[in-house]
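Archive record:
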Amino acid sequence: MNITAPSDFSHLWDTFEAVDIFYDDYGLERGHIIEAQGQFLEYISEIKNSNAIPQRSHVNPLKIVSFLPRIMMLDQSADEISVRLSGTAIDRLYGNITGNNIDNLNDDDLSKYWKSCVDKVMQTRKPIVTRSKINFIQKSDCSITTLIIPLSSDGENISQFLFLFDLID
């Protein structure tokens, strides 16, 4: 994956009034995103239209097929946040988490981290980019860069969160 300078996707910053870097201990400069995430954000900006928040009903899975394995969608209700769906690459990392409340995941730190990301998106009403470290048996010290986009059922109120994960060696 390539890290792309913000100027390559500068038109997107105006569309969303900025994309915030929420968590950064790995030298990710403000505005730098993974190229694939920039392409995904371009698609979201196209479907956003004049709505404050992109509508979930406008997301066409056939237009984002190459991203689907790395996508996770969270639903937010008054009393919980649950995993509506997780792609196959996400399932390989965390197990099958579709349908689970994030409070019931086997990893309390991960649950807290995802909640803090959701809180930041709710607060800013903008997409955010995060980077966090992950260790694998075969490889250690990798990081995951995640683009998190708020979604709405009515174009105004945030009801879902679309996560796009990318692994960086």
About this structure: The chain has one domain: 3-168. Residues 3-168 form a domain with the Beta-Lactamase fold (CATH 3.30.450.20). Residues 1-31 have pLDDT under 50 and may be disordered. The two ends are 9 Å apart (CA to CA).
